[in-house]
Amino acid sequence: MLERYPQVYGNLMSYKIYVRPTAQKIGGYASSTKTEHQKNILDVLRVLFVHGEGTTWDMARARMRKVSEIRAQEKAYRRLLVGRVDRGRHAKGIMDTGMVLGRRHPKKPYSTYRLSLHGILYGMDALDPAQKEMDSMAACYGPLLPRIFGRWDLITKALGSDAYNLKILARGLLLNNGATAYAANPIYELMEFVHIKYRRNFESITEHDLAEQISYWFYTFLMYRQGGANKMKRLFARDAQLRDWYSEFVAEAGTYYAQSVRNVKRISGVLRPERP
Q1: Is the peptide bond before 109 cis (omega within 30 degrees of 0)?
Q2: What Rg, from alpha-carbon coordinates, does the chain have?
Q3: Are 197 and 216 in contact (CB under 8 A)?
Q4: CA angle 135, 139, 144 (to 5 degrees)
Q5: DSSP annotation string for 108-145
Q6: Before 6, cis peptide (omega within 30)?
Q7: Buried b (16+ CB within 10 A) or exposed e, 143-154
Q8: In contact, 2 and 102? CB cutoff 8 Å
């Protein structure tokens, strides 16, 4: 039975440690030689990546023109999505990985499918999409990641090519990596707090909270880039709601680290030897 939206899965560290390596086993790496089955899986992901939610018929029609070809392709896509039973054994489909979600529509004889947030991240990694494909994906999935894809036109105008740095996140980089702790770089603490804030959600996080975590990562990473702070100021000047949302995150991080300092000082006081 197909899952209904919303689906619950793990946070960004879960994506890096578990989901991405699992996805690479069935779909391959971006630069690896692909088996025929892996090529078919990536074809499914690319259709959903570029065209958004749709039925298997919609997906097949995006690839084929003749009705007979569409029917054959639709059956192939369905097997890849939900799996198949062969000689009494069930072969898992793409949906079992959590990269694709599906839902049945009440009183209608069909189901629709779309990428999950993990599926979008893996798609940016394995498909290596061009900017035009990224733009198309953002238009399709705006409601899923409203603080980024829902503002994509504004973001690309303000940030230029930096808007496409989400591909870095998709490769699992700058995720709780000590190598990013550049000397005298205060942004490192903010990047750490992106993970601290959601550390309890390794195995289970709502799609809304995962979207928030991805959004915090995106805007914090922008601060690492040369000239990123100025671009962020231009963007926030055009979107006060986005500015206020991110300012609350920075304030929350400041409160957390201030409390951490107080805790350390308290422990230091306990360890200090008493005067005779």
Answers
A1: no
A2: 22
A3: yes
A4: 120
A5: SS-EEEEE-HHHHHHHHHHS---HHHHHHHHHHSTTTS
A6: yes
A7: ebbebbbbbbee
A8: yes
pLDDT recorded at residue 162:
87
- Distance (Å, rounded) from C-alpha 213 to C-alpha 16? 14
CA distance 257 to 209: 22
Cβ pair 93, 79 in contact under 8 A: yes
Task: Count CA atoms within 13 Å of residue 105 on its CB side.
Answer: 9
According to DSSP, residue 276 is labeled -
- First-to-last C-alpha distance (Å) of the chain: 73
User: Backbone dihedral region of 105: left (phi > 0), alpha (psi from -120 to 50 degrees) or beta?
Assistant: beta
Half-sphere exposure for 209 (CA within 13 Å, toward CB): 18
| CA distance linking residue 122 with residue 116, whole number of Å | 10
Q: Three-state SS for 104?
A: strand
**CB 55, CB 111: distance < 8 Å:** yes
pLDDT digits 0-9 by tens, 182-199: 444 567 888 889 999 999
This prediction has a pTM of 0.87
Structure-model confidence comparison of residues 149 and 221, the more confident one: 149
The predicted pLDDT at position 183 comes to 43
Q: What is the DSSP letter of 29?
A: -
| CA 140/CA 62 separation, integer angstroms | 15
Q: Which two tokens stand for residue 129?
A: 């999409």
The residue length of the chain stands at: 276
